[in-house]
Amino acid sequence: MKRFFSPLALGALLIVSTMTFSACQKQTDPVPEKQPVAAEEPKFPAETNTGSVSESNLETIAQKEAAEAARQEAETIYQNNCQSCHSMTPPAISAPPIVALAGQYRARYSKKAGAVADMVSFMKEPSVGKSILGSATFERFGLMPAISLPDEELEKVAGWLWDQYDPNFQGGGDCQ
Q1: What is the dihedral of CA 95, 99, 104, 109, to 10 degrees?
Q2: Is residue 99 within 8 Å of residue 171, measured between CB atoms?
Q3: Percent of the chain at pLDDT above 90?
Q4: Cα dihedral 144, 145, 150, 151 sign
Q5: CA atoms of 150 and 158, how far apart (whole Å)
Q6: N or C end of the chain: which has fewer CB within 10 A?
């Protein structure tokens, strides 16, 4: 027999319903313009007027949960394999910081797929010719060793690196 709702979806429905009813009972003062939102608090789509979450909203929730799981997996790959040399932000440890690398890739590539493919190629077989960084970077840090992870993991961490772009970061061209 096909189940219409997964246990996760039913749990989400219960949480959303509880939050909606408790919010309706407790809120008597005007809501401030901007309320802080906890970083880990899941965002569920609005309920329909029947009190149930539509199938398309359940799919959206599932897609968001899958994307978050993929992001966490890629960050774990970074923490286990890259973080010892690449800090997230300056100061650099023994290699350019992630936010600086992300900025360099965003400056060179207009699409994520091309940047990810080149990052994977570089991580598998690093060379000055494959690098997007200037010679001052190699004089300072040297050339990184080849990373012996499966292509799938390299693609995940490269995609995660692309997503770490911070338009407000103003680092040097040599990723200091």
Answers
A1: 130
A2: yes
A3: 60
A4: positive
A5: 12
A6: N
In DSSP notation, 67-91 reads HHHHHHHHHHHHHHHTTTT--SSSS
pLDDT tens-digit map of 141-153? 999 999 999 999 9
103 close to 169: Cβ distance less than 8 angstroms? yes
Residue 8 neighbours by CB under 8 Å, 6+ apart = 65
Write out pLDDT tens, residues 75-96. 999 999 999 999 999 999 899 9
Residue type, 69: A
Instruction: Examine residue 150 and say whether the peptide bond preceding it is cis (omega within 30 degrees of 0).
Output: no
Tell me 119's DSSP state.
H
* Residue whose token pair is 């309320």: 35
How far is CA 90 from its chain centroid? 19
How far, in whole angstroms, is CA 68 from its chain's centroid? 7
Contact 59, 45 (CB under 8 A): no
Instruction: Write out the two tokens for 85.
Output: 């040399």
Structure tokens at 104: 């360099």
